Amino acid sequence: MNGKEPIVLFDSPEAAQFKTVGVWVSRHGRPCSDERCARYDGCTHYVCEECGQPYPKTSYCIPCHDKMRRAIFDAMPKMPWDTTTPLVIFNTDIYFFDVGDLLEYCADNEVPPESLPLVLCVPKETPELDPDDFFYDVLGEGGDVPGEIVKAAEAFNAAVQAAGPLSWCEGTEAAIVTAKDIGYEEQKQ
């Protein structure tokens, strides 16, 4: 053939052959390229590696997850609550900004404060404005920020410091709070 590719016609047996190819099919009848894909499509639950119980495939084993989260909370250092630092129920977005908030929650849910996994909150730092950094991309090489802008930034930074925290987030220390500390028993009577 003088180094040329041979001519193969459309209807020639060399152009194509029929072969049986194995494919995994899920219980829904969807073909999948591999067994794992087909089994995932066809299953509704997995078996938890920790406790051996089934859980929905779109979730996780809630009892084992809760147990793991509780172990993390239990390992936190414990600090007495000063009644002014905000609290949060561990791993939730339920915050208490004063004794009244906590008392109301305990009364509404009929739970003593000792039974709640309370964590002391820490303030989120409000960033201050550094005019040199802020205007770095705008200034030409060797350029200086005008004095009026520097004074305005200093005034802004003073206001940030005076304002205190704008928000709070969960810290790393568990709060020790007793019913007696916050007057929970007296409120129940």
Describe this entry's structure for a reader.
This protein has seven helices and nine strands. It has 189 residues and is α+β, with helices and mostly antiparallel strands. It has a domain of 50 residues. The strands form three sheets. The protein has a five-stranded mixed β-sheet. A two-stranded antiparallel sheet has the order 1-2. β1 and β2 form a beta hairpin. The chain is flat and about 90 Å long. It starts with 23 loop residues before the first strand and ends with a helix.
Low-pLDDT parts are: none
Kindly state the percentage of residues in helix: 25-40%
Please, what is the average pLDDT?
A: 90
Order of helices and strands: EEHEEHEEEHEHHEHH
Distance between the termini: 104 Å
Query: How many helices does DSSP assign?
Result: 7
Shape: flat
Largest sheet: 5 strands, mixed
Extended strand count: 9
Instruction: Give the amount of beta strand, in percent.
Output: 15-25%
Rg, alpha carbons: 32 Å
What strand line-up does the widest sheet have? 5-9-8-6-7
Secondary structure category: alpha+beta
List its salient traits.
two-stranded antiparallel sheet; flat; 17% strand; alpha+beta; 5-stranded mixed sheet; 189 residues; 9 strands
Kindly summarize this structure in a few lines.
The protein has 189 residues and is α+β, with helices and mostly antiparallel strands. It is built from 7 helices and 9 strands.
Spell out the blueprint of helices and strands.
Layout: E1 24-25, E2 31-32, H1 35-42, E3 45-47, E4 54-56, H2 62-74, E5 78-80, E6 87-89, E7 95-96, H3 99-109, E8 118-123, H4 131-134, H5 147-163, E9 168-176, H6 179-182, H7 184-188
Parallel strand pairs: 5-9
Antiparallel strand pairs: 1-2, 3-4, 6-7, 6-8, 8-9
